[in-house]
């Protein structure tokens, strides 16, 4: 194409009989022109295109283009599939923590605490729950700010909820007992 | 007779006869149209912004929506996934009935205790909270807050959540203490991080405005 620079070219069909080429206008490189042509040796546009790009490269571009397109389709479909697992579709009750937590939910949680802390804890069966507790603990501001590497490591290695909470309280008390501790540091935020 | 009153409404009127006019009014055509508009646009938002909306939301808080029966019905009878996908191989094992929002994930906030009692008849599995929503602080990106009565109350305190708001320019009604002239005025009352939808719907005497977005 006169006055243009070739940007890319690839086949558009499985039979590889049609090519799409993209050209940038030399006068304004932001202007891109798309040209469709038959991959036919008698086709003038096709012959002209081959002066700018090798046929093997057009084949390679085609493979790359469709690989990328497939990847994007898979990514999109994964997103769509995730929709089908939305928490809103589950009938399992979600306990809302925080100011809006109902008194019923709070009572239910309170009743469970002694059992979780002092009952027999099956750390193998509930390994994921234990991991979630550790995650929640490490989200606390005072734990994030704490320099107590040793205690933090104990929390990471803990096998029961009481071990986790014991070490968490150690860090909490350390901060509470610091002479420079201001009122604002005392608040445990969630 | 082709049409008949639904059994729950019948029960509600029998139990609360003094509110029968009010119950009938909650099925008003304009009320239904406004809610249909909300749910239609909300589901379009869900389909477009999947990962930051529907895949993430754990709870829907519905504020001041009277008895909530129209909105809950619409929210829980629309497929969360577009029909076109159900034909595809990767979705064939999904049971269609598992693709509806469950009423147990809806929480209704209403200042009128009796309205809550009526609301419970329609949605026994949902949660109900008898509180003034303007006194509550809502927060969390896993929540969707719906308020279709913004004209009746001062702006609510919400942070980080997905929000769907409706208001109107029907200034003539005495109870309407927070009407707006256009959707931009409604948007200005909140700290939006991203707006997914904004628009207006014409009624004979007024316009209804709606914005759906994510707050800072």
What does this structure look like?
The complex is a heterodimer of chains A (190) and B (216). With 190 residues, chain A is of the alpha+beta class. Chain A folds into 2 domains: 4-83, no CATH class; 121-186, no CATH class. Chain A contains 8 helices and 3 strands, in the order βββαααααααα. Chain A has helices at residues 44-49, 55-83, 103-118, 127-138, 141-145, 149-157, 161-177, 183-186; strands spanning 4-11, 18-25, 32-38. Chain A has a 3-stranded antiparallel β-sheet. In chain A, α6 runs antiparallel to α7 (161-177). The N and C termini of chain A lie far apart (64 Å). The relative contact order of chain A is 0.07. In chain B, the strands form 2 sheets. A 7-stranded mixed β-sheet of chain B has the order 3-2-1-5-7-9-8. In chain B, α3 (29-48) runs parallel beside α4 (69-76). Chain B is α/β, with parallel strands linked by helices and 216 residues long. Chain B is built from 7 helices and 9 strands, in the order αααβααβαβββββαββ. The mean pLDDT of chain B is 93. Helix content of chain B is 29%, strand content 23%. Chain B starts with 6 loop residues before the first helix and ends with a strand. Chain B has one domain (28-215): Rossmann fold (3-Layer(aba) Sandwich), CATH 3.40.50. In chain B, a hairpin with a 4-residue loop joins β8 and β9 (207-215). At the A-B interface, α2 of A face β4 of B.
- Please provide the ordered H/E string of secondary-structure elements of chain B: HHHEHHEHEEEEEHEE
| Uncertain residue ranges of chain B | none
The number of helical runs of chain B is 7
Order of helices and strands of chain A: EEEHHHHHHHH
Weakly predicted, low-confidence segments of chain A: 183-190
Main sheet specs of chain B? 7 strands, mixed
A few lines on this structure:
Helices cover 52% and strands 12% of the residues of chain A.
List the helices and strands and how they pair.
The complex is a heterodimer of chains A (190) and B (216).
Chain A: E1 4-11, E2 18-25, E3 32-38, H1 44-49, H2 55-83, H3 103-118, H4 127-138, H5 141-145, H6 149-157, H7 161-177, H8 183-186
Antiparallel strand pairs in A: 1-2, 2-3
Chain B: H1 7-15, H2 20-25, H3 29-48, E1 59-63, H4 69-76, H5 83-86, E2 106-109, H6 113-122, E3 127-129, E4 137-139, E5 143-147, E6 157-159, E7 162-168, H7 183-188, E8 192-202, E9 207-215
Parallel strand pairs in B: 1-2, 1-5, 2-3, 4-6, 5-7
Antiparallel strand pairs in B: 7-9, 8-9
Helix pairs in contact in B: 3-4
């Amino acid at each position: 194409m006169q006055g243009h620079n070739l940007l890319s070219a690839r086949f558009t069909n499985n039979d590889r009989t049609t090519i799409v080429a993209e050209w940038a206008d030399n006068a304004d490189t932001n202007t891109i022109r798309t040209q469709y042509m038959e991959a036919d040796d008698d086709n003038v546009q096709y012959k002209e295109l081959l002066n700018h790009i090798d046929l093997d490269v057009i084949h390679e571009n085609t493979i790359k283009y469709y690989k990328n397109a497939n990847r994007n389709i898979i990514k999109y479909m994964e997103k769509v599939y995730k929709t089908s697992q939305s928490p809103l579709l589950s009938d399992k009750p979600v306990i809302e923590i925080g100011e809006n937590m109902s008194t019923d939910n709070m009572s239910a949680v309170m009743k469970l605490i002694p059992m979780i802390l002092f009952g027999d804890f099956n750390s193998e069966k509930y390994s994921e729950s234990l991991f979630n507790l550790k995650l929640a603990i490490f989200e606390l501001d005072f734990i994030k700010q704490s320099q107590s590497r040793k205690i933090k490591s104990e929390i990471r290695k803990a096998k029961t909820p009481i071990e986790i909470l014991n070490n968490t309280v150690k860090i909490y008390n350390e901060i509470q007992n610091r002479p420079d501790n201001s009122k604002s540091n005392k608040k445990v935020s969630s | 007779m082709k049409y008949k009153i639904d059994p729950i409404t019948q029960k509600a009127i029998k139990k609360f006869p003094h509110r029968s006019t009010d119950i009938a009014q909650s099925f008003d055509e304009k009320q239904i149209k406004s809610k249909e508009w909300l749910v239609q646009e909300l589901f379009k938002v869900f389909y477009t912004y999947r990962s930051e909306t529907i895949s993430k939301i754990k709870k829907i808080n519905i504020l001041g929506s009277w008895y909530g029966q129209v909105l809950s019905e619409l929210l829980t009878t629309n497929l969360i996934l577009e029909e076109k996908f159900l034909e595809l191989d990767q979705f064939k094992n999904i049971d269609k009935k598992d693709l509806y929002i469950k009423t147990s994930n809806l929480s209704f906030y209403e200042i009128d205790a009796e309205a809550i009692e009526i609301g419970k008849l329609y949605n026994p599995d949902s949660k109900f909270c008898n509180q003034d929503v303007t006194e509550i602080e809502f927060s969390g990106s896993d929540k969707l807050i719906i308020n279709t009565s913004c004209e009746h109350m001062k702006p609510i305190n919400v942070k980080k959540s997905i929000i769907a708001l409706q208001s109107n320019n029907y200034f003539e009604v005495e109870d309407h203490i927070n009407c707006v002239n256009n959707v931009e005025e409604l948007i200005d009352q909140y700290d939006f991080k991203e707006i997914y939808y904004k628009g207006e719907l014409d009624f004979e005497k007024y316009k209804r405005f709606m914005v759906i977005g994510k707050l800072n």
